[in-house]
Design a protein that fits this description.
Layout: E1 6-12, E2 18-24, H1 31-45, E3 52-56, H2 77-103, E4 109-116, E5 120-122, H3 131-137, E6 147-155, E7 158-166, H4 181-193, E8 198-203, E9 209-211, H5 217-236, E10 240-241, E11 246-256, H6 263-269, H7 275-291, E12 297-307, E13 311-316, H8 322-332, E14 336-340
Parallel strand pairs: 2-3, 7-8, 13-14
Antiparallel strand pairs: 1-2, 4-6, 4-10, 5-9, 6-7, 11-12, 12-13
């Protein structure tokens, strides 16, 4: 239905400090592939891990990437071979893409602003079938984050690129045709409204946020149009110039798992009638065979970027619920804070 895109935006300040946004129309990129891509970018271009953000739209209408969700898919060896080939090709594409963006570096004026779109609904606190009536009555329950952060890049006053985000699952659709879902339609609409401009989307903390109602192509287009119009309203208004320098950090936090299952529990789970439980148990048993034990912690990645004197971007790994974004915005105030996830 739509193409799926990988896009890159490289920013460099007057001191030569760089940060790289890579936006990808996929459900996510696992740790192994992420580290491999970042390693290649460091080898080729000297970019450290802290300088690179791999930002996924989280569309559910794209290909399987890598093995991080392997327990959810029941595929034969040939299908896994094709998935591995695609992941390798995606890595090559991203590495080359970043190189092209670096080659095109030039003087630019940056500005930022904040729009609003309201189609994201808290899926835990509102039953999908009740949403139309609740919306009409103004009784939808939160929390939610309806902010639409927008970064505009202009060259000699002419719009060159637009980076924008939103905290909502890209799950309007659930079929088997490639589609960027509402983020894809939003990018297409922005690029049509501004010929020659590249539009890039990043997903916010959308773990508990759905586009509701859903499951119709016309709704994906509608939400994309609403998001694009929110971006255009910001572009047409008074945006704040981004001045100053760039700074970036990266840290991995060892998050402790809950109580780990025993080998005996896992062996029982391999016989479960729930095939996902059985599949997960087999994977964990393989880890025990390799390492002698299950890892007690997970190295959770957190990046922070300081863009100029006021704007702070926090970039989180995995599927983060909206409460984290709302809390970080409060705690980082009075600075402007943009919170990305699925990185």
């Amino acid at each position: 239905m739509t193409d799926l895109w990988a896009k890159a935006l490289v920013l460099e300040d007057a001191k030569g400090e760089r940060v790289v946004f890579v936006t990808i129309d996929v459900v996510g990129v696992g740790r192994e592939l992420s580290l491999s891509i970042r390693g290649q970018l460091e080898q080729r271009y000297g970019l450290q891990r802290r300088q690179v953000a791999l930002l996924c739209s989280h569309t559910h209408s794209g290909p399987v990437i890598g093995r991080n969700l392997s327990t959810m898919y029941f595929l034969d060896d040939e299908q896994w071979r094709l998935i591995d080939e695609y992941a390798a090709a995606l890595q090559r594409t991203i590495v080359e893409l970043v190189g092209q963006a670096i080659d095109r570096l030039g003087p630019a004026e940056l500005s930022y602003g904040l729009g609003r779109a309201t189609f994201a609904v808290n899926r835990r606190n509102n039953r999908a079938k009740d949403v139309p009536a609740l919306r009409k009555a103004g009784k939808l329950k939160g929390p939610f984050d309806h902010d639409v952060p927008v970064l505009a890049v202009r060259r000699q006053g002419k719009l060159y690129a637009v980076l924008f985000g939103y905290a909502c699952h890209a799950t309007t659709l659930n079929g088997y045709e490639w589609c960027g879902d509402y983020p894809g339609y939003a990018q297409i609409a922005i690029e049509r409204s501004h010929p020659g401009v590249t539009a890039l989307f990043w997903a916010g903390c959308a773990g508990d946020q759905n586009p509701l109602p859903r499951r119709k192509v016309e709704l994906a287009r509608k939400y994309g149009k609403e998001l694009a119009e929110a971006v255009d309203a910001v572009l047409a208004g008074q945006m704040k110039p981004l001045v100053g320098t760039l700074a970036s950090t990266y840290e991995e936090i060892p998050l402790a798992f809950d109580k780990l299952p025993t080998r005996e529990q896992l062996e029982r789970d391999t016989k479960s009638k729930n095939r996902y439980v059985a599949s997960r148990a087999r994977l964990l048993l393989e880890q025990i065979e390799r390492s002698g034990q299950l890892a007690p912690t997970y190295p959770y990645p957190i990046q922070t970027w300081r863009l100029g004197s006021d704007l702070i971007m926090v970039i989180l790994g995995g599927e983060v619920v909206v409460d984290y974004a709302l809390r970080l915005k409060r705690e980082l105030s009075p600075h402007t804070a943009w919170i990305a996830a699925y990185a």
